[in-house]
Amino acid sequence: MGRASDIRIVGVNSWTEEYSYRTPMKFGGRVVRDVVLRNVVVEVETRTGRRGRGFGSMPVGNVWAWPSQVLSAEMTLGAMLLFGEKMVKVVGDYQGRGHPLEITEDWATEYGKLAASVEAEQSLSEPMPKLAQLVAASPFEAALHDAYGRALNLNAYNTLSSEFVNADLAHFLSPEFKGEYLDTYTYRQPKAKMPLYHLVGALDPLTDQDLSERLNDGLPETLSEWIYANGLTHLKIKLNGDDLRWDVDRVLAIHRVTSEAQRSRGCDTWHYSADFNERCESVDYVLEFMTRIRENSPEAFDRLQYLEQPTHRDLKRFPENRMHKAAALKPVVIDESLVDFESLLLSRELGYSGVALKTCKGHSEALLMAAAAQKFGLFLCVQDLTCPGYSFLHSASLAARIPGVAAIEGNARQYCPSANRGWDEKYPTMFRITDGTVGTHVLDGIGLGFEPLFWSKEQIGSR
Fold first, then answer.
1. Cα–Cα distance, 31 to 21 (Å, whole number)
2. Which domains does the chain have, with CATH numbers?
3. Which phi-psi region, left, alpha or beta, contains residue 139 (left: φ > 0; alpha: ψ -120 to 50)?
4. Which of 118, 190, 369, 437 lies 20 to 30 angstroms, CA to CA, from 214?
5. What is the pTM of this model?
6. Cβ-contact 9, 42 below 8 angstroms
7. How far is the C-alpha of 360 from the C-alpha of 378, rounded, in Å?
8. Backbone region of residue 179 per phi and psi (left: phi > 0; alpha: psi in -120 to 50; beta: other values)
9. Whole-number Å distance between alpha carbons of 128 and 51
10. Which residues pair with 60 in a beta bridge?
């Protein structure tokens, strides 16, 4: 019969915003200069008549989610935007009742059909990848979870037990989760604060010598300036993956600059992560990379916390890309490869030892993969999609509620600070960084844990 807290959808609205980047960001051999955000409002009603309105926002992220060799970036962006427009009808027409985990599970059965209709309508010469579908749908999932919590006047992370959810994790994952619910794998209160992972893109200047011209916009412009201004202790390094000498030299150069800055400010503890964005041909490249780093700078090697997605995202297509040897040296996490529970299981077979959670793949999916990763003893991290404003707070709220996640990546303040306007005033501990951490203690409200700045496109225009 369901629960009194089960919800039905009574309204949905969506619109987009566009922002230019402050500076270009290079990753995976591609350069990004702007962002389109999809914003979503969903209104729900419980069986007892309680109503809640929830908000969700996420970068469309086509360059990362659909790095096509056939279609232009404009075409993939257009396709993902159209998918989002079609999602409005799917959500608005949905007649079921239940917990957001169950409702989003139903929605997901429609994603393939939506993608096919987009492909036909736009005469696309290749299918929309599952990852692109998840990203395009993710703000709807966020808005639903937010609305559910608001209808019950509860934090959404505290509505994940058997008191609220109609099925245990065995239903969503596998029999070994029988009798378990997500409350076992999440905190009831957010972590008070978390280290912030700062991105060092492939084009980012390290010192004054790397600057051809200054922006003079009041923000740091070199790595050393960012370290001093934000008190950074965690650096995520974007690498090429197809130029070993460049990758090694880049890490060593970053380590030299970082070491000088950290020691001058009296800091002796800092960390790196390395992201190849699936560009390495094989695990041999990764092993040689680590060998050279360790030979040239044992300290840089020791400070390397984990490696992210070294080889191609399609694990089934490239089963020879086994990570056992690399994972014996450092945790190796999947990011682009992680699109469902099946891909997580396959990654374990191929030697990956960790997963990167992203709210842009869907809030429900992120929660379920976090539970599975903990169950299997995998390394956990939460990654960014250059998420500004609401979407960054959403990502941080997830990281703050998942045991084992030690830091949170957030780089919109570097590349797209204009989209943080207003949010930084409302949540200064999350956007104005001085000691290398974000104050996630503020993410303890109802819904996803924080209040939107606006509920409509008209309100955005009046900011």
1. 11
2. 7-184 (3.30.390), 194-461 (3.20.20.120)
3. alpha
4. 437
5. 0.97
6. yes
7. 20
8. left
9. 35
10. none
